[in-house]
Specification:
323 residues; alpha/beta; 3-stranded antiparallel beta sheet; globular; disordered N terminus
């Protein structure tokens, strides 16, 4: 399950907390909350805080450790933030997260990475099935270090905000992936794209890269928005979206694992054929011995040789196309 931080006592469902001082709801907005059925007592050098309300606890109310109402006395809405396996999540709010308003009325948290100097372009990083986790954040950081402003939106914000795993059984992540509709992916990427486009230095030079389900999302994004470069790593399900090829705005760089049983060559080879037929610019790279998710360096699927060759190709592609 989710890790607990020290000095946290719980009764009922497991809750993730951190040192009292800066809390956020699972989507890392300024609020956090708990559902009825359990109390959470949080301590960390200060007097314990007991959460026993069915309503959201706001930042000001939490700091005063008094009520679960707004400053004007009205109750906060219980938004029912609960992940699909029944655990409510409390996560620390971090300065490098922003809240984006999506056109369908939802709010989406996104991780932002900035380089040491003013950005020369922007990049959207799209998560794999395990959320905007440590690996995805490090990917964003690595790309940002090359001079880009990078944003990694949490695509599961509607069903499991704050979802963050190194890996998880398919019966946990599959419902999340299946619940994410193509239209929702489009809306989420539009929100991230619009935010990037307003940032100094980015202009209209925006790229996108995605992994696994994010690789498919990168392809979808490239078919509905204006990008200068799009990268997809072992994106499953793209072969079912070939009617979108004619709408792709940017050249695409695809990576495939030759030892990936989820996406065999006879499946992914339909994609370059469709790209050629539509006159679209593309690069296709297959590493013969690499499995699915071979770039993820904190899981057993990591393939060092393929990964060491993949990163320079991604960065060179962005450098050329986002100049």
């Amino acid at each position: 399950m989710f890790p607990r931080y020290p000095d946290t006592e719980l009764s009922g469902r497991e809750v993730v907390t951190a040192d009292f001082g800066s809390f956020a709801r699972a989507d890392r907005s300024p609020d956090y909350g708990c559902r009825s059925g359990f109390d959470a007592k949080v301590s960390g050098g200060k007097e314990p805080l007991r959460l026993d309300s069915t309503r959201m606890l706001g930042g000001s109310a939490a700091t005063s450790r008094s009520s679960a109402s707004r400053s004007d006395g009205t109750a906060r809405e219980d938004k029912g933030l609960q992940n699909p396996i029944g655990d409510f999540i409390l996560l620390p709010m971090k300065e490098n997260y922003i809240a984006l308003q999506v056109s369908d009325g939802t709010e989406m948290s996104a991780y932002v990475a900035k380089g040491p100097s003013s950005p020369k372009a922007g990049v959207i990083v799209l998560q794999e099935a395990f959320g905007v986790n440590d690996y995805i954040r490090r990917v964003a950081d690595r790309i940002a270090a090359e001079g880009y402003l990078v944003v990694a939106p949490e695509l599961f914000h509607r069903t499991s905000p704050g979802f963050d795993r190194v890996e998880a059984p398919m019966d946990v992540v599959m419902p999340l992936m299946q619940a994410l509709k193509v239209e929702e992916i489009e809306n989420d990427v539009r929100a991230a794209h619009a935010w990037l486009g307003k940032q100094p230095g980015v202009r209209d030079a925006i790229g996108v890269v995605g992994f696994c389900m994010g690789g498919r999302a990168s392809f979808i994004a490239n078919s509905v928005l204006s990008f200068k470069a799009a990268v997809s790593l072992y994106g499953g399900g793209i072969a079912d979206l070939l009617d979108r090829v004619s709408r792709l705005s940017a050249p695409m760089l695809f990576f495939w694992g030759g030892a990936d049983p989820r996406i065999p060559r006879e499946t992914w080879s339909k994609i370059p054929a469709a790209m050629d037929a539509a006159g679209k610019t593309h690069v296709d790279v297959e590493f013969s011995g690499a499995p699915h998710a071979y770039l993820t360096d904190n899981r057993s699927s990591y393939h060092k040789e393929a990964a060491e060759l993949t990163w320079p190709l991604i960065l060179s592609f962005f450098k050329q196309k986002l100049a």
